[in-house]
Amino acid sequence: MDSWEWNKIIGAVLGTLIFVMVIRIAADAIYDVEPPAKPGYVVEGVAEESTGGAEAAPKEEVMPDWGTVLAKADVDAGKKISQKCEQCHTFEKGGPNKIGPDLWSIVDSPRGEGRGGFDFSAAMKKKGGTWTYDELFKFIKSPGAYIPGTKMSFAGIRSEQQRIDLIAYLRTEADSPAPIPPPKPAEAAPEKPAETPAPDHKG
Ligand code: HEC
Fold it and tell me: Is the CB of 88 inside a 6 Å radius of any atom of ligand 1?
């Protein structure tokens, strides 16, 4: 009878020890893996979110009233400024592409298309849209800031007036220059109500 009691007690103790060991091995396995893994993922996710949000909003520049400024722009001055572009661009009809594409008739033409098969950057093609006066104004100020990833490595022109004169010159380099929009009402109203130019009659 005694030996049976002892067997039971020893058995219970051994069983308990084995149970405890198994638990501890399992626990070690869990805790060894988890702590390093978690912070890694959490930090990455947070970092991505915060930078994305902060950089997505560049400062907005007020666009000129093209109907007013183009009428007063100095096209000859614009032509002089265009010498800064000549290292990479031609401006004449059928001109060759250089480092950059020929810019004949660029105003109001689609962005990153045609131009004698010029190999535009993915960034330029992805941006899409049309080279309106506003778009040229923003791009020429700082090409890389306006279209990150553009192949046009040109610092940009800060002066508003220089950009206006340059765009006025670009406008004239076309078979039929892009229309100038009417001046905004606030500035145009009192002076000359009847002077809207009559449309060209052909024939
Ligand atoms: C160092 C060479 C270089 C200079 C200088 C340069 N450009 Fe460019 N330009 C390029 C390249 C390269 C591209 C093509 C950009 C791309 O695909 O991302 C380009 C593209 C353009 C485009 C877009 C054309 C299209 O069809 O979408 C315009 C507009 C433009 N340039 C205007 C100018 C003007 C205006 C100047 C002068 C103030 C100028 N560039 C100076 C190299 C230059």
Answer: yes
